[in-house]
Design goal:
The complex is a heterodimer of chains A (738) and B (157). Chain A is globular. Helices cover 28% and strands 24% of the residues of chain A. The longest helix of chain A has 29 residues, at 145-173. Chain A is of the alpha+beta class and 738 residues long. In chain A, α5 (145-173) crosses α6. Chain B starts with a strand and ends with a helix. The radius of gyration of chain B is 15 Å and the shape is globular. Chain B has helices spanning 21-28, 73-84, 92-99, 109-122, 128-134, 144-154, and strands at 2-6, 9-13, 47-50, 53-56, 69-71. Chain B has 6 helices and 5 strands. Chain B is α+β, with helices and mostly antiparallel strands. Chain B has a 5-stranded mixed β-sheet. Classes of the chains: A alpha+beta (738), B alpha+beta (157). At the A-B interface, α7 and α16 of A face α1, α2, α3, α4 and α5 of B.
Chain lengths: 738, 157
Amino acid sequence: MKITRRRFLLSTAIVGGGVLIGYSATRPSRHRMVNKELGQSGQHYLTTWLRIDPDNRVTVYVPHSEMGQGVHTSLAMMAADELDANWELVNVEQAPAHDLFANGEIIKGFAGEFGLPGFLQTLVGAAAFKIAEIGNFQITGGSSSVRFTGEYGMRTAGAAARQMLIDCAASRWEVPADECYAQLSHVHHNASGRSFSYGELAAETALLEPPENPRLKQPSEFTIMGKAMSRSDIPPKVDGTAMYGIDAHSDDMLYAAIRLSPVFGAKLVSVDAGEVLNRRGVVKIIELEDSVAVVADNYWRAKEALKLVKAEFEQTGNESVSSADIFARHDRDLASGNDKNDKKVGDTAAAMEAAADIIEAGYRVPYLAHAPMEPMNCTIHFHDGKADVWTSTQDNLGIRGRIAKVADLDENAVTMHPVYLGGGFGRRLPFNWNVIDHATLIAKQFDVPVKTVFSREDDMQQDYYRPAVSSNFRAAFDAAGNLTAWENKFTGPIQTPGAAHIPYAIANQSIRVVDSASHVPVAAWRSVDHSQQTFFTESFVDEVAHRAGINPYQFRLQLLTDHPRHRKVLEVAAESAGYGRDLPEGRAQGIAVQESFGSVVAEIAEVSIDADGQLKVHKVTCAIDCGRAINPDTVEQQVESGIIFGLTAAMYGEITIAEGRVAQSNFPEYEMVRLAQSPEIQVHIVESGEALGGLGEPATPPIAAAVANAVYILTGQRIRELPIKNHDLTRTIPIAQR
Amino acid sequence: MANFKLNGIVQQLDIEPEMPLLWVLRDELGLTGTKFGCGVAACGACTVQVNGVAMRSCVIPVSAVEGAEIITIEGLALNAAATAGTAPSLTAVQQAWIDYQVPQCGYCQSGVIMAVTDLLASNPSPSDEEIDQSITNVCRCGSYPRIRKAIRSLATA
């Protein structure tokens, strides 16, 4: 990602006697369609705002959603550090999803010059109308907030403000600016011993022209970045005051429970509501194109009434489809010859031809649901030609545009009220519209707030799933035992380009993809394609290592000659985990490494299996190179979180399709790692000084392979299909851990 | 009529006896700190205290708490202060949740805090196994390592 500073613009405005300093990326010229669709030329996408008030308080407006990743705090730290603000005086607010925010300036989301986040590229294709929609996003995803908004927006805005405050003070004192310096929300002039607080300078600073290229600090100058700071969103999360989308409440509120076709995509044919309208609290039965909803004065009343409504859905032809059919289709497509090149190095066919030994294996993983703890919901109040919206979303601007479109309103008539997210993991990204669209169509029939809520069963059965993927491998050794070729063919479509690529120095590589369709809706799931592909590649490379008779850790190091960051995290993790030392009886360590979203992560899982075949992950040691840590405590939290999220998927995660629909409906059938299964997690942050890497996702991919590789050592069973719970681990032929 | 005491205040409501306590709290009374997670007592997000015992309110019909004393996350600190005769502030469990930076998305934490409060009230010094058996709430963000550390910090030696 190359971003040159001169593309950025800064603006100022006076508000309430203070100064508001904004940072923008100009409207991207290459996206002419966006210009055409969205507005007049000369408007700026201001993505970052800082406000300094006369009382010397600083407010940082963060254009991203807080879903527990600590982004409000991390981004504020970046701005405050460059500003040389006193952290005690810094407030964080989520930037409102409004066009008109201050002085007619426009805040737009994270898009445009930053390019489309990678995980969206394949979803949107090149269709102009879709790109126009992208232009209206305020996305929290792709582990991107700190890396892009923070690194390019927050820091620049903070640095510009600092420089302007210094210039302002220097001019008042009639001294050269370079005799002044900023510290803890004050500008000082040493020679005369004078100082001003930022608040005293704010109004006058607003009149200055913002600098074009404010100087950013060197890491050695940081005073806030790199320190473990308490997250601003935690206190309201311990006393019940944090407001999530589902917590929107008013006395006149109505509640909608909804039933969609259990077979995806089927349209509603008929409804028999019987006497349901006579039930207490029930206000209306609403038939939509693909669903029926009951609206009542209480969600439970709506839900209970909905149980009595009979609904018939059309036949789609998918009524008999099962997971077995979908995997059989994978196999047919993999064998069809319709595969396309993903990556090619050397001549794999020739290397296979000349091979002395070939190892092959087929892997697959099932669909997965996101299952955020807060079930999907959306509250909308249509009134006076406007709409107020409360919904937990990873993209307030995108959802605003969608609701406006579905409701046929101007975007500026739709107000998004920022709320906390009870988990996201990709479920609350754009294009996963189902709750939003339904809530809009339902609420539009009323002039009071209507909260549409998916039950947990709805949430699990009407998700946009992590794709089920099958992947076939071959690897070749020459007569001297050298690994000469790596061949991989997997089912797509690809959501994350490069996720199937390997860092290993193998002279001949053929990585190919074949699209394999099903009627099951899919979308991004924490770490997107990396979660499946890393399980495949890091398991198969482990197979290859064992075949070569080399310990899997050493084997990886030998093949990572061009990847010092990978080597380093492997070495740090191995050192800390005591890799290769004598383990307690019955335990083994599995290892995996992967780069994703700009961070490189190695994980070592220490595992045992009891006589009943019950797997226990005792400890996970992780080393992560995310370039630099902004808030080290948040880094650790996100690593712990990513590992446990991936461990749930590896051990239990499975959405199966039967009779065209999802077989699982609630947590007992879609089990989660809980406290009792949660391993001790040791996190080591490796600061390489490289560009900032993401944190929300990169710890998720390696864990499945790390655990499965340990299972192989303990049992001789190679786990080639997830989840692990489907395997009988009592059958053991242990492999000596070399 | 449903009658119970909620965070120290007597409630008298004309509602169906089978309505789960969770929806009485959230939709009838607008007390939204108690969360809806699964509706089948499988995740613990809706945990409240009924007569001092942690219970999952999504499956308790309001008729089952007739005359009972109910404490939700909103009333936890007030109740503790009233019991101890001190000024209201965060409880030790809530404070530990801040000190150990436990919550991520935070959605499950009301329920976890209610469950941990009950555990430590009945067993001030739980072993790891007792913690595992007692705290079975689902946290999708995986705050478990910090939940465990925070509980250990509260356990009396």
